[in-house]
Amino acid sequence: MELSQSTLNKLKEHSVTKTFAEGDIIMNEHSYIRSIPIVLKGSIRVMRTDEEGGEILLYYIRPGESCIMSFMGAMHGQPSMIKAIAEEEVEILFIPVEKSTALIKENSEWLEYIFQLYHKRFEELLDVVNAVTFQKTDKRILHFLQEKKKLSNSSDINITHQQLAEELGTSRVVVSRLLKQMETDGLVSLGRNKISLL
Predict the structure, then answer these.
(1) CB 50 within 8 A of CB 61
(2) In b/e form, how buried is each residue of 121-147, taking b as 16+ CB within 10 angstroms?
(3) Of 5, 96, 100, 120, which residue is the least packed, with the fewest Cβ within 10 Å?
(4) What is the pLDDT of residues 62-89, one digit of tens each?
């Protein structure tokens, strides 16, 4: 799902590149979308917040990828339904909505990219629904840590029990209890604000 250099060059003609630090909020819920992001470097986590302020992780956006939720919202003039946060220092190409939609008519590769992205995100959202509905919380914790390991290329994940609970949409007490059991089972090693996958 990579764009050719020629298509990227076309997009860059009318776009702006910005850099965000780890933890920066790139997009908030209920904001109107003026441009479509493509991640050039780093990664973004996409969250959904409920009425009580609880959050759940939906998916990550990696280099070469965009946010289909932003694209659909922008196309229909609707506000964002998600919150996007820089997982690490991230460099993003912001494509104006009008340029992005015009390119659909003249560039089949861009259209195919959007369809592939839509398919990938749909599968990831189905995974979230399945995990929340059918998987035990310890399996969700392990899967989350494995995804973090892939993103950072490190078995050591710097995260607090509270942050982990918030991203999985559960309580800190539950997360701490399950992590302790996982440590006993030899799956993880727990440190101060750090979890190491074994």
Answers:
(1) no
(2) beeebeebeebeeeeebbebbbebbee
(3) 5
(4) 999 998 888 888 877 888 888 999 999 9
